[in-house]
Amino acid sequence: MVGRGAVSYQIEIDARIIIKWEAEMNGNIFKALSSKMRVDMLKLLMMREYHVSGLAKALDISVPVAAKHVKVLENAELVKRKKFGKTHVLRVNKEKLYEAMAIFSADYEVKVQKGASILDALKEVAGVGIKRVGDKEFIVSIDEEEGFFVYEVNGKSPNVPINEYKMEKGVEIEIKRLVPVLKKKVRVRLK
User: Does residue 184 belong to any structural domain of this protein?
Assistant: First the structure.
């Protein structure tokens, strides 16, 4: 009995440490994103890598001010630094940005029969809009927010529509909205 109590106590302490760490990390991320200047820096870094002085020049601010903002972004792990000798080049940490957005997602647990499809499971979740196109079914909205969605099963993207994927064991389904991010802008002029 004493051993079990000690184990569950240890697990409780570890869970509190993890929750505290996640809260601190998210706090750092949102603190970093609370400044328009730092958001502008991230926008530039999404397009290409910069040296601190290059960011300062692009944003028309002094190098010390840019360095201060970069330090906040680095502390939040939104920016990574690469060293080439004495030169330091910055790039955005896209994975951390995506993690920050994940805290806004909702988690559900549903039960379906073995052999059920992803569609069957999603029918149990409120707010998932499905549309039939021919003989295939697609996710077209989440909580009435329309868009383009993809799904992953246990972290992998299946090559079949949601009505054709059959589950033989418990899985974790992630629904991800494809967000249009401007990567290139092309102006076409006619001759």
Answer: no
- DSSP letter, residue 117: B
Rounded distance between C-alpha atoms, residue 176 and residue 102, angstroms: 10
Q: What is the CATH number of the domain that holds 123?
A: 2.170.130.30
- Extract the tokens encoding 1: 């009995």
Based on the fold, state whether residues 84 and 21 are members of the same structural domain. Answer: yes
Tell me whether residue 118 is in a domain.
yes
Helix, strand or coil, per DSSP, at residue 68: helix
Q: Are residues 148 and 67 in the same domain?
A: no
Average pLDDT score, the chain: 83
Q: What is the pTM of this model?
A: 0.52
> Could you tell me which of 124, 132, 59, 135 has the C-alpha nearest to residue 90?
59
Q: Which two tokens stand for residue 190?
A: 């006619």
Question: What confidence tens digit (pLDDT) does each residue in 6-58 have?
Answer: 443 444 445 554 444 454 555 688 888 889 999 999 999 988 999 999 999 99
**51 and 82 share one domain:** yes
Assess if residue 80 is contained within a domain.
Answer: yes
Beta carbons within 8 Å of 173's beta carbon, 6+ residues apart: 118, 121, 122, 151, 152, 153
